[in-house]
Amino acid sequence: MDNQQPDLPNINDLCGYHLGFETVSEKGERVSQQLNMLFVPKVEESMIIEGDYLRDRAYEEAKPKVAHFRFDTNKLELLMTTYYTRVVSVDSITLINPNLRIRKIINYQRPLESEPLDKVVLVGFGVEQKAC
Predict the structure, then answer these.
(1) Of 125, 84, 86, 85, whose CA–CA distance to 109 is shortest?
(2) For residue range 46-57, what is the model confidence (pLDDT) as tens digits?
């Protein structure tokens, strides 16, 4: 409902998550955030699942957001593309094993409609390990 999406008849079968995280920038700035998210598959072909990625609070803008996701089950790569007011965020997560993943985020200046993503404004890369 936060994302102004129609009721989903199979909502109880979908994978929803509550995510909490804390980050520290290279300048020492600390950010803590919590959000709820839901992946809504729309296309499943061969090794690819695509659909909408709903959040009650987005990273770049503190409001509900609908993004696009694409999961390659062969490469175990999740690609999420979110159009914000000023930027377009392309976030790639590759699952190495249940406790380790590689993450890459590229933010582009939001282009005019139908123009390509070509002006990079931020790049982030990390290795994320689950704390046991």
Answers:
(1) 86
(2) 999 999 998 888
